[in-house]
Amino acid sequence: MPALHTLGLFVRWAHVAGIAAILGGALLVWLLGVRRNGTNAGTVVAVAHLYEWIFWAAIGVQVMTGVGNLGAFGEALPPSDSAWGTKLIVKLVAVLALAILSVPRTMAVVAMAGDTAPRLRLLSALYGGTTAIVVGIAGLAVWLAHG
Amino acid sequence: MVFALGTFHAAALIAALVLVLYATGALTSLLSGLSTIAGLALFGALWLTTVWSTNRTLRGAFTVAPWTSVPYGVMIPRAAWRSGVNGILFLGCLGVILIISSASNGDIGFLWLGALIFATVGTAVAFVIGLVVGLLFAGVDLALVNATRAILDDKKSQP
After folding, report:
1. In total, how many domains does chain A have?
2. Residue ranges of the domains in chain B?
3. Quick one: closest CA in B to A95, which residue?
4. pTM, whole model, 2 decimals?
5. Which of A3, A78, A134, B55 would you call most buried, defined as having the most Cβ atoms within 10 angstroms of its Cβ?
6. What's the pLDDT tens digit per position in B85-106?
7. With an 8 Å Cβ cutoff, are B64 and A4 in contact?
8. Is residue A50 less than 8 Å (CB to CB) from chain B?
């Protein structure tokens, strides 16, 4: 297998693994927050704190590998006024929105890490919102991959 | 917090640039002239220098997140200066990556001329671009800090 082909496969794998980590982690923290009677509040904040590290590392990887995936199209990249191009623009706007809206979530989790009574209702809302946006982005990605 | 904000700056900048370039039709020619390895290395370099720059800017600012303990009058000039320096650092990385990429293609004819332009005019331009982008992100960050304060102060979110 040529080295460049292997690199292309690795870039695609990293892109899918990144979105899986972002979605799976957000879903986990949301579920832990919703099950208020079954989980210790401090544990939920600790898991959320760890997730924030994974989330931002994965966002960096998503952007890096996403550009790599676009570059793999070369001259065959469909134009922005095509149906595929419109979907890509919507996906890029959604990724930008996810990054911007995630900064207050991270700051809130960092602030809550020192709280004696963390706000699980707020955490559930923040991670529920993150999950909803990421599900939308993942759906767009699947749609794009199938033309 | 430093890693999160640094990554946010690098990722949002590249996502916004890709969005604008794609919408205007300039992305295809830009990406077709760049190898996958060079592209990954360039983003990796931008990510690294931006996290470093954010770390230097936020020194002492997030003692109790997200409440900044450093006045805005200190933070904003510091952010502008560090972002300008980040622009120069990234330019240096860009130069190294381009030299390696050109040398591996055997295309080193204009290497010294390119290096001279990079070291003079390029440095000044990179500083100004970095400074402007840094000021823009300082404004975005302050808005996001205020949004976080509003979320945490909201009575409905209290336990």
Report:
1. 1
2. 2-157
3. B15
4. 0.86
5. A134
6. 989 988 888 888 877 877 776 6
7. no
8. no
